[in-house]
Design a protein that fits this description.
Length: 342
Amino acid sequence: MLTRYLSAFGLPSPAQPHVAAAPQRFPDGGAFRVEIPSVEGPEALMAVFKAAHDLDVPVHRVSQGSGVMMLSDTEITAMVDQCAEERVELCLFLGPRGTWDIGAGTQSPSGGGGIRARGSRQLWHSIDDAQRAVELGVTCLLVGDEGTLWALHQLREAGHLPSHLTLKVSALAGPSNPAAFRVLEGLGADSVNIVGDLTIEQMAEIRAAGTAALDVYVESPDDVGGFVRHHDAPDIVRHVAPVYLKFGVRNAPPIYPAGEHLMPLVLGLARERVRRARLCLDLLEREGLAESMSPQGNTALPAVRRLALAGTTDATPEAPGSDRLGASAPEDTPPTNTLERA
């Protein structure tokens, strides 16, 4: 290594972080997987797969950020079918979210409320989004609200949602300390985006607190920091496994919610995210870590400990037409509980 020779000039190589190597792995034995985020619809998905084939990038998961509500049934079905053909996991974001709502708190300097669901109706709409996506074949949902996460896990435990459904916590609601990670894991998270500006030591502390897969932006979009951490990827694999390495693009405008008016940008960013992944995989290969990647097509995640919360029930929730959770809808309101279709 060239760093050995730099010490002769008074420039010693940086010390490795004083943390132990992560002993955990995915069930298939892999330490890391590749996720391409912000894949906004069937056209962007096709662009990702073409770039992945051209650049020889194994993709394990693709995720979408605009939300289930911004996709038609036809578009969701097309994405499900494409991912099944490529043996790639599809993860769709639930909506609505506070940052798009009429409340002004998210526009304040402190960004109060963030992407969390506001009120019972938004909670119900998020759950309805989940039910619709699952019925169309989606097996992984991206969640930005702790209450929605817990509610979906309860429905999964009660059999109203499939037991194989994966619940993934958004980077915009990710934890930055071990206790917060443990809580999210306990509430139902199977895969958790952690805050992108943490040190390797801090990431390793979070890893040691639980077993859920961690999701880490190797390169973050500008609106979540714009961090470019490709050279940290080897240590992330060593100390944070099992981990999904995610690839945003710095110095690019936001695209949520995406649509035809942004399609050239959406497609260009989709291709560039795959290229960024190729650069990182090349670096990992030079570090002797390429062989620790999970085989493509594997989606199984580690078993996770859950919190036992008082007040949980096996009863089916009331309809989204309720004024509050647990309250009945007016007699003249038609039934709207899509969970009854499960």
